[in-house]
């Protein structure tokens, strides 16, 4: 995984940015479509001459920032592992091959951050992903039609549903519309406001052949809106086939530590 490039999408699920207190960060970013995501940020770029070169994925431990005054919130998402093809130093084609549950944990109160990426790669365990599920086709009629995403937080005193249970079809941009938008942004997004020039990042990374891209955090439940992570918490992000399991079954399985089948993508991170 250390050779793959890591990107994330901001604002691809209605009202998440408002809940996260980040809507103002994107006030200067204009989109042609009011429902379009706001942009793409890097969270891991191997060999980059900045904090972005720090490998920040740990699928077991979420390491909080060294600065104890920084508030970190879970961001439950779906991540796509994609193959990238280039032509004349431009992204020509994006092929999703796997998807998984992902925690794109983010710092909320870093007043020194000028780019969204500075709130993302804050430790060697800023991110984590569950077991990957093969994508038969990334279009209507494919495996993703049947999946939903939900998240939980547990410690010795509480067990809460952190993010809403949402069907993947609830993303503002999905399937081919999403891929076309990603390709356009990878080729044209400039260094502006909280966003960065992505074509320069791809060039400096020697045009990687694979990309892990998180496609946007879902909305929070009331209990998760202002619940920041602390040592001792356990984060769960779960992508499950809602034609096979209902939410109560998944909730009880997580709460009781029951084993789930391989076609459920489960991320479990202990917070330290």
From TrEMBL:
Superkingdom of this protein's organism: Bacteria
Classification via InterPro entries: DUF5718 (IPR043776)
UniProt-recorded name of the protein: DUF5718 family protein
